[in-house]
Amino acid sequence: MEDAAAPGRTEGVLERQGAPPAAGQGGALVELTPTPGGLALVSPYHTHRAGDPLDLVALAEQVQKADEFIRANATNKLTVIAEQIQHLQEQARKVLEDAHRDANLHHVACNIVKKPGNIYYLYKRESGQQYFSIISPKEWGTSCPHDFLGAYKLQHDLSWTPYEDIEKQDAKISMMDTLLSQSVALPPCTEPNFQGLTH
After folding, report:
1. Where is this region: Disordered?
2. Residue 163: which residues within 8 A CB-CB, separation 6 or more?
3. Among 41, 125, 139, 169, which lies 20 to 30 A Cα-Cα from 118?
4. pLDDT digit string (tens) for 14-40?
5. Residues 169, 138 share a domain
């Protein structure tokens, strides 16, 4: 009799303790608890809050700051491009001016065949005609018959260099000739060379 009454007493104790009833033959479902074993796995504040207005403000500030940085970077790059364009425009203007000058000098009257590498002296008659001569004002001395306008050197590309720029232009041409005449020597070994890096 006592054994038969034991299960009843046990069921009563379980019911008073709030144990869930069995779900069929498969057993009971596990109860949900926010702190299993006394430890919180997630933050209830972050999982249950509807939204923090401060986060939206911070996000908007971040987007605005990014826009400002992007605008500043684009402005800096455009400034560099504008400076390059201005420099190219100045170079283009100088090229056109030099081409116009060279064309005019090639149409100046001259009784000799002009040869590249020589310096020619430009004079102007009383009639207004301009002409080239191989005689310099120094060679004429005080008996120079006409007004001296300038001296030019005929380059091998048939361009003209003013007398005051001849030395600088010759230095540039000499440097370019030196670079073009140098042969590019390949290293004897294409494998990595660690000489001097190891003890």
Report:
1. 1-30
2. 119, 150, 151, 152, 153
3. 125
4. 444 444 444 444 444 456 666 666 666
5. yes
Q: Characterize the bridge pairing of strands 119-124 and 160-162.
A: unpaired
Would 15 be classed as within a structural domain? no
> Is 32 within the bounds of a domain?
no
Residue linked to tokens 């004897």 = 188
Q: Long-range contacts of range 142-149, CB-CB < 8 Å, 24 or more positions apart?
A: 147/123, 148/121, 148/122, 148/123, 149/122, 149/123, 149/124
Q: Which domain holds residue 122?
A: 108-174
Residue 148's identity, in one-letter code, is: F
Distance CA 40, CA 34 (A): 6
Sheet holding 147-154, edge to edge: 130-133, 119-124, 147-154, 160-162
